[in-house]
Amino acid sequence: MDRCVGGAARLPESERKDLAVLVLARSATVSDLAVRHGVSRKFVYQQTHKAQAALDDAFTATTRDDAVLFELTVTRTWLRQVIVGLALICHSSYRGVVEFLRDLLGVAISVGTVHDVLQAATQQAGVINRQQDLSGIRVGLHDEIFHGGKPVLAGVDAHSTYCYLLAAEAHRDADTWGVHLLDAARQGLSPAYTIADAGQGLRAGQRAAWGDTPCHGDVFHIQRQCEGLTNTLSRLAKGATSRRETVQTKLDRVGQQDPDDGFAAQVALARQAEAQAIGLAHDIRTLTQWLSHDVLTLAGPTLAIRQMLFDFIVEELVHREAEDPQRIRPLRVALQNQRDNLLAFAGVLDTKLTAIAHAHAIAEPLVREACLLHRLPSTSAAYWQGWNQLRTKLGGKFHVLFDAVTQTIAQIPRSSSLVENLNARLRNYFTLRRHLGNSYLDLLQFFLNHRCFLRSRCAERQGKSPREVMTGQGHPHRLTMLGLGPLQPQQA
């Protein structure tokens, strides 16, 4: 007995824990463990009961609602951080900030104080925005958003989503755009090309400021216009069918009792109108689907073939324009006027695929085959049949070529959808204000550029801010950059 008591006293705390874990896990019997460690069975049971009690506490313990979880050091600096955070992160209005501080923190401030804090942050944000080097941007996306009837000019980096232009103006003419683009050029902005819709002032301003820098067409807007036309014609076709069925029902009611040549003529006309509407809707839908899936798709044929297909589609629209000129003509004119701009991305793709062919000493048709494979879903039988056939032709070069083509396709934007996304995010802030000032937009621009992506389909963006993605370099926390640091220490 003395030996067991002495063994228990000498047993380290870590081994006591292990002893209890082994018993709870039923990895060994109590008797075996007692003999192995030179202790009594009673001692083993005691340690096991302690471990079981700790487990029960861990799984059943609840923190009281009034228990203190952690403490914050409330300073004037911290209150300024709260004000800026509420306005930018939580989209709070000035009076919402005042109410939050009053009700939850017991701090009374005025709307003017909130304005002064945000104005000081805005001035620092504007300085940082204007000092940022923009030479790393290769493709710029331009667009206009309207608030209160006034345009807000926006420019975004296609790769990082960094916003390099956000300005409220009275006009959106060539001179206004040109001045802002010249300012951006002084910060090093010199993209290989830009992407924008068909806005005349935007494009004229870029020509005036940047000369021969290409401005590619935005396929998103033209595809949406195509979709709108096809949906409208489909609804008209359904309406024609409903009218024919109504007239047909009336004729069926009359039946043999009182034949009416007037009803019969109406049915004939209704059937003719129905057939014409259905045929037109089907033809326009087919043409716009060809345009979307065969001409404007990224992974597709050469530029020359796309141009031929594009012209064919426009010609077919001309033949059908007389059937509904009010609706078909705007799309046909837009396509005719924007053909070269809309297909500019195909020229970029051709150049890059040619470079891949030369770099890997592979025939260009085989490189194009690898490109066309990306049109097919990877779950389809056609994809894997083409994949195996191309792999047989290329042998050991297949995977290198396929990866190069995949990366190339991912790096060629066709639309300004990212700047459209920015506009959607800005709407949440614009609705809080009747009038926008460029100082306020400076703060929004800074915040969006230095806020880390909470999630993203692009792995290189996850956990980084647009500025980090653009420059490849980290930066301090945005509040610190605005002179509102230091931050509270992170709680464990």
In short:
This protein has 492 residues and is an alpha/beta fold. The protein is built from 21 helices and five strands.
Can you offer a commentary on this structure?
With 492 residues, the protein is an alpha/beta fold. The chain is 64% helix and 6% strand. It has 4 domains: 2-60; 74-209 and 415-492, Nucleotidyltransferase, domain 5, CATH 3.30.420; 219-342; 352-410, no CATH class. The protein is built from 21 helices and 5 strands. The chain has a 5-stranded mixed sheet with strand order 3-2-1-4-5, sandwiched between helices. It is extended, with a radius of gyration of 34 Å. It starts with a helix and ends in an 11-residue tail after the last helix.
* Rg result: 34 Å
Large-scale geometry? extended
Termini separation comes to: 46 Å
The largest sheet is: 5 strands, mixed
Tags for this entry?
five-stranded mixed β-sheet, alpha/beta, single chain, Nucleotidyltransferase, domain 5, 492 residues, 4 domains
Question: How are the secondary structure elements laid out?
Answer:
Elements lengths: L1 H9 L2 H12 L5 H8 L3 H20 L15 H13 L5 H12 L5 H21 L7 E9 L2 E8 L5 E6 L5 H13 L6 E4 L3 H11 L4 E3 L1 H36 L6 H35 L7 H18 L4 H18 L1 H17 L3 H10 L7 H14 L3 H13 L6 H14 L7 H13 L15 H6 L6 H4 L11
Parallel strand pairs: 1-4, 4-5
Antiparallel strand pairs: 1-2, 2-3
Helix pairs in contact: 2-4, 3-4, 5-7, 7-19, 8-9, 10-11, 10-13, 11-12, 12-13, 14-15, 14-17, 15-16
